[in-house]
């Protein structure tokens, strides 16, 4: 993304006037790079808000294509995008908001060495996937590279938010929270269980907020696990200690 000129100062003026961000924080955002794994329900608001807020580089990874049933909640895509790769559709939606944002679309499955390389190049990673296998892989890559991970999940009327920062020696990782083999049914996904449309937007927006804080230096990073019950409108917060026997943290 180009340096701050008069147009950029105007575009980001509502963030720059915030003491917690100011010019320095906005410049850090403009120089920042976020990797978003998943361009569906969670990844849509994440990609749009990070692009709009001035995250300099976005890498959007998703090997799926847009389907009609996605449009109920995946707001980065429209009717004209049906059949297109989600990563490319979300890229175009982000560029429509902010053409100065550098957005790269990865349309093949991101795993193994490719995942580790992509994570190592990012300042923050946002896990917007809906499979335990993907979450464990992203978590391990982030832990290995020392890159903070913002994790979100949404199903039915329930949402979850957590931030795992390997730079903090007290911070747990995703495997501390959900030890491998104890994470539950991997197929507990929107396609089989449903999800109310605004829930993914709510959780995705919180993920974007945490990423902005991490990169700009504003505020305090979210700690522990927060869960949201959409039927009652209640949030609950849980402390999550680092597991001394975690195979990822101590492997």
From TrEMBL:
Pathway participation: Cofactor biosynthesis; molybdopterin biosynthesis
Gene Ontology terms, MF aspect: ATP binding; molybdopterin-synthase adenylyltransferase activity; sulfotransferase activity; thiosulfate-cyanide sulfurtransferase activity; ubiquitin-like modifier activating enzyme activity
Membrane spanning stretches: none
InterPro entries, sorted: ThiF/MoeB/HesA, ThiF_NAD_FAD-bd, Ubiquitin-activating_enz
EC number: 2.7.7.80
Cellular-component GO terms for this entry: cytosol
Catalytic reactions on record: [molybdopterin-synthase sulfur-carrier protein]-C-terminal Gly-Gly + ATP + H(+) = [molybdopterin-synthase sulfur-carrier protein]-C-terminal Gly-Gly-AMP + diphosphate
Domain THIF-type NAD/FAD binding fold residues, every copy: 12-248
Alphabetical UniProt keywords: ATP-binding, Nucleotide-binding, Nucleotidyltransferase, Transferase
Record note on quaternary structure: Homodimer. Forms a stable heterotetrameric complex of 2 MoeB and 2 MoaD during adenylation of MoaD.
Family stated for the protein in its record: Belongs to the HesA/MoeB/ThiF family.
Function statement: Catalyzes the adenylation by ATP of the carboxyl group of the C-terminal glycine of sulfur carrier protein MoaD.
Protein name according to UniProt: Molybdopterin-synthase adenylyltransferase
Source species: Halomonas elongata (strain ATCC 33173 / DSM 2581 / NBRC 15536 / NCIMB 2198 / 1H9)
Upper classification of the organism: Bacteria, Pseudomonadati, Pseudomonadota, Gammaproteobacteria, Oceanospirillales
């Amino acid at each position: 993304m180009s340096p701050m000129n008069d147009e950029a100062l105007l575009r980001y003026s509502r963030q720059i006037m915030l003491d917690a961000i100011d010019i320095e924080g906005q410049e850090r955002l403009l120089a920042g790079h976020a990797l978003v794994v998943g361009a569906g329900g969670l990844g849509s608001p994440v990609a749009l808000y990070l692009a709009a807020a001035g995250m300099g580089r976005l890498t959007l990874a998703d090997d799926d294509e847009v389907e009609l049933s996605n449009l109920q909640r995946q707001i980065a895509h429209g009717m004209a995008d049906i059949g297109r790769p989600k990563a490319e559709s979300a890229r175009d939606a982000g560029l429509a908001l902010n053409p100065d944002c550098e957005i790269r679309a990865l349309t093949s499955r991101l795993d193994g060495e490719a995942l580790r390389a992509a994570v190592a190049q990012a300042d923050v990673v946002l896990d917007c996937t809906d499979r335990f296998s993907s979450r464990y892989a992203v978590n391990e890559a982030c832990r290995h590279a020392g890159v903070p991970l913002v994790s979100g999940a949404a199903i039915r009327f329930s949402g979850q938010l957590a931030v795992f920062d390997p730079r903090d020696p007290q911070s747990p990782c995703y495997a501390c929270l959900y030890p491998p083999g104890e994470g539950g049914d991997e197929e507990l996904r929107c396609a089989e269980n449903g999800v109310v449309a605004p829930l993914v937007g709510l959780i995705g927006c919180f993920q974007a907020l945490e990423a902005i804080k991490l990169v700009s230096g504003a505020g305090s990073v979210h700690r522990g696990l927060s869960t949201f019950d959409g039927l009652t409108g209640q949030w609950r917060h849980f402390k999550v200690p680092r597991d001394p026997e975690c195979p990822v943290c101590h492997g």
